[in-house]
Amino acid sequence: MVLPSEFELSVTPEEIVLRARGQRRERLDLYLLRRLRWGSRTKVQRLIQLGRVLVNGGPGKCAQRIARGDEVRVRLLTSTAIRSEHPPLSAPLWEDPYLLAIAKPPHRLVHPTGRTIAGTVIDELHSRYQELNLRGGREVIPRLCHRLDRDTSGLLLVAKTIEIRRRVQEAFEGDRVRKGYIAIVEGEARERAFEVDAAISAHFDLRRPHSHRLARLDESGKASKTRFFVLGCGAGFSVVHCLPITGRQNQIRVHLASVGLPILGDTGFGSAEEKWTAPAPAYPDRALLHSYQLRFRHPLWGTERELRCPAIGDLRPFLMAAGVMESEIPPLLRVGR
To answer: Mean pLDDT, consecutive 10-residue segments, the chain of 337 residues?
Structure first.
């Protein structure tokens, strides 16, 4: 999905402001742990001890009680203020002076959003290039060209300048970037190839905490089209090559679920662990969707390139069980000018 042009989500915010709304008083460190979801009370306490947390304008203390209406400011002056609990990103799949492509691991956000500030992909890239800039006298600021959901793994394209990011985003928005995904879906597909052409709109799923945003089929929504090719089947699942023609939020997930083939592990769109009866591979702990291919023209040189991100980790057992060889996955169509 292309990042909205009006938001700069490639930059980690320096400060966030919270307003206490609960009726009961609670300790500052426990309040921040609940609101920010950084996963570690020690990290929150360290932030307070460094003087980066202000309560009503004054320095906060861990045991200080927060009451309804109190303003809490959290200062994140450096990307290393809170260390990520995720393993470091692997080396770039491809890189030149203007762009790089990385393999995004599953379970990791690409940019700060909601209550997750630290530990994102872009946060780590900023830290990595900050060190390279200091050593080489450069000024590279990584900027996301598009985004992937937290669960989705695979190929992610990052620009090194504002202008290159703008040009790549224009290519995405103008349908001049071809994308290919690998999905493991629930059920054995009857057709080897099919297409879903159905409009999509976004809505807030009130069943989920914090009104989680999901998409759904909607005749009044935006036109959306995806082509699917079944690469192989296993016991109760299929491996599908997904080629989105448009780029809507959750498009592949919605379209597959609409034809009775929800992505395995995608509980938001119909997959359920109790339906999984195969002895192996085990039911996954995420929706098995992988950004496998990107084909685009270089924004500066005009040369065409197709990048691939090998399917690894939790995807491999499914590909092996279905007898799918990645070398047999066809290249994407060439892009127009």
So the answer is: 52 75 88 74 83 91 93 70 70 95 94 68 84 67 92 96 94 93 96 96 61 78 96 96 94 97 95 89 96 97 96 94 95 80
This prediction has a pTM of 0.76
Q: Strand 178-186 relative to strand 304-308: parallel, antiparallel, unpaired?
A: unpaired
CA-CA distance, 220 to 56, in Å (whole number)? 46
| Helix (DSSP H) and strand (DSSP E) numbers for the chain | 6, 18
Gyration radius from the chain CA atoms: 22
Does 149 participate in catalysis according to the annotation?
yes
The residue ranges of DSSP E strands in the chain, in sequence order, are 15-19, 26-27, 53-55, 58-59, 65-66, 71-75, 94-95, 99-104, 143-144, 153-159, 178-186, 193-197, 200-205, 212-217, 225-234, 237-244, 289-297, 304-308
- DSSP letter (8 states) at residue 311: -
Question: Are 316 and 323 spatial neighbours (Cβ–Cβ below 8 Å)?
Answer: no
Marked catalytic residue, from 29, 149, 266, 314: 149
CA 103 to chain CA centroid, nearest Å: 11
